[in-house]
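Pilot study result, target chain (289 residues):
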Amino acid sequence: MPKKTWLKYTLICVSLIFVIVCTTISYKSTIKTSLDLENNMVTHFIDVGQGDCALIQVNNKNLLIDSGTSDSKQKLIRYLKKNNITKLDYIVATHPHEDHIGGMASVIKNFEVGEFYAPKAISSTQTFNDMIDALRSKNLKIKIATPNISLNLGPNATCIMLSPNKTTYDNLNNYSCTLKISYKNSTYLFTGDIETQAEQELIANGYDLSAQVLKVAHHGSKTSSSKEFLAKVSPKIAVISCGIDNDYGHPNRETLDRLKRLNTIVYRTDLDKTIVLISDGSKIKKLDN
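Predicted structure:
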């Protein structure tokens, strides 16, 4: 084959490959961004390393629970913008540990915020001070998270706070705001970092803790997810947010074993990265990454 003909043939092949690759990427992108947010609830358990962050989208409303670590804040902002977030109707900072509010100042600065909730607990860290400064810069006030507060997520959806159930705790984790969210017949329980003491208070207060999806408390730590608490929740799906090869040994083997005995499907951000669950109100399914 003459040299010029061979060069022309090669360029045509390269062009065809480029078109096919671009078409495939565009197709995948279309699938990713064409979620039916009108008739479903979409829950994103965002991979923020050794931290917690979840985005709930339903009825054109957006609820953000925690914001991960300071190290992951840029990744979080990019993720929210990629999902066309311009306003967060509600933000809940479950408690003021850095791995839960590390990106909060950046989130507040980058998006319109409706209402901001947090327990009546303070911290002396720079991360906490940055969050407070960001709220002040937008004239936002913290609404104190207490049991039985409801957030309006629109038709067929409910969101109610179940904790904290005391005003003072020795352990900051137990100040964590627990939320139960329902969309039609689908139920989710978000637990922050509550430990056994707070779990026992939830049980003693007689709350309906049953949920199909459980955001496992404290990254799967052995100080949370007691046998009695998990039996009350009886989750079909459990999501553990933790970092790869983290220094804490999360998730704990005992916690994983308890979930296994309940025949619970376990997803982990250290293994599965960001986990997206979609519910039509009856069935809950995990979207492929």
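One observation from the pilot: The chain is about 30% helix and 20% strand. A full batch analysis is planned for the follow-on phase.
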